[in-house]
Design brief:
alpha+beta; 5 strands; WH_DNA-bd_sf; WH-like_DNA-bd_sf; Helix-turn-helix domain-containing protein; Arc Repressor Mutant, subunit A; 5 helices
Length: 128
């Protein structure tokens, strides 16, 4: 399940939001945390698997989980030959957990994380 692009600087998930459980599950997983660290710049799943030294099938599962959270953004890497590929970039700079009478709320802030700028800085990508 792909999440829609963020329209604000912060995303809050609460007890009523399925992304809350997925986010906590992803943060509890060492491979997901390693993928988030490696995704400082846009990378394909294959590149993430290689950088994190994990099996490609594992990387696909972890990226799928992370894609259900506000932590990872999906984009498209355009290839001049027409072979476009999905690429992923970390879409979070900070996270805060709030506990109150209504339950748990997780706010993920992307301040400083600009997936578009990161995509344009990626090797082989040009805005021309």
């Amino acid at each position: 399940m792909k999440r829609p692009p963020r329209t604000t600087d912060a995303t809050t998930t609460t007890e009523d939001d399925a992304a809350l459980d997925a986010t906590f599950e992803a943060l509890a997983d060492a491979d997901c945390r390693e993928i988030l660290a490696a995704a400082a710049t846009p990378k394909t799943t294959s590149e993430l698997a290689e950088d994190c030294d994990i099996a490609l099938s594992t990387a696909y599962r972890k990226v799928e989980l992370l894609s259900e959270t506000p932590l990872l953004a999906e984009g498209v890497r355009f290839d001049p030959d027409g072979d476009h590929a999905a690429e992923y970039v970390r879409d979070a700079a900070d996270a805060a957990i709030e506990l109150d009478d209504d339950g748990v709320a997780l706010t993920v802030d992307d301040e400083g994380a600009d997936p578009l700028a990161a995509a344009l800085d990626a090797p082989g990508v040009s805005a021309d």
